[in-house]
Amino acid sequence: MKKFTKTLIKNSLRRIFLYRACLNRLKMMGMEKVFSYTLAMEAGVSPDQVRKDFSEFNIKGNKRGGYNIDELLEKMENIFYKNREHNIVLVGMGNLGLALSKYSRFLQRNMNIVATFDIDPFKQKARTEIPVYGMDRLKEIIQRFKVKVAIIAVPEISAQQVCDDLVKAGVKGIVNFAPVLLKTPPNVIVNNVNLCDELESVIYYVHHQLKIEGLKNIELLYGDMK
Question: Are residues 143 and 170 located together in one domain of the fold?
Answer without folding.
Answer: yes
